[in-house]
């Protein structure tokens, strides 16, 4: 399943994702979901990264290898067009863009 996300990001950092505000869940056959490159597994990784703060631990919780999780994170950031996490010596921390997307991902999971 794919999720279509449009970012409306003014420089103030106060931004929204209109299609997620309209509906927390969309049917899997939604044409917009099929065209998007962002998948539910991507969102699962974002949530796991936020909870674990380390790519290796997030990957293990999703039964992925660390290189696979790193590639998925790079794919997500390429799709959305901006970094979502700050890389630090002891792990990763979501930046403001990542926090918004993680919040939306959690809403989809409920």
Q: Can you characterise this structure?
A:
It is a single chain. By secondary structure, this protein is mostly helical. The chain contains 6 helices and 4 strands. It is 54% helix and 11% strand. A two-stranded antiparallel ribbon has the order 1-2. The protein has a two-stranded antiparallel ribbon with strand order 3-4. β3 and β4 form a beta hairpin. α3 (40-52) crosses α6 and α4 crosses α5 (66-80). The relative contact order is 0.18. The model is unreliable at 8-34 (pLDDT under 50).
Q: What gross morphology would you assign?
A: globular
Q: Based on helices, strands and strand pairing, what is the structural class?
A: mainly alpha
Rounded mean pLDDT is 76
Question: How many individual helices?
Answer: 6
Secondary-structure element pattern, one letter each:
EHHEHHHEEH
Query: How would you characterize the largest beta sheet?
Result: 2 strands, antiparallel
**CA-atom Rg in angstroms:** 14 Å
**Number of strand elements:** 4
Which strand-content bin applies to the residues?
Answer: 5-15%
Low-confidence stretches: 8-34
Distance from first to last alpha carbon: 16 Å
Portion in helices? 40-55%
Strand order of the largest sheet: 1-2
């Amino acid at each position: 399943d794919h999720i279509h996300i449009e970012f409306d990001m003014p420089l103030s950092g106060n931004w929204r994702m209109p299609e997620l505000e309209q509906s927390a869940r969309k049917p899997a056959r939604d044409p917009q979901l099929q065209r998007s490159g962002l998948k539910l597994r991507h969102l699962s990784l974002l949530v796991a990264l936020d909870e674990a703060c380390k790519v290796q631990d997030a990957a293990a919780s999703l039964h992925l290898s660390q290189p696979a999780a790193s590639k998925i994170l790079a794919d997500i950031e390429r799709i959305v067009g901006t970094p979502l996490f700050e890389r630090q010596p002891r792990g990763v921390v979501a930046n403001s863009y990542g926090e918004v997307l993680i919040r939306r991902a959690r809403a989809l999971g409920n």
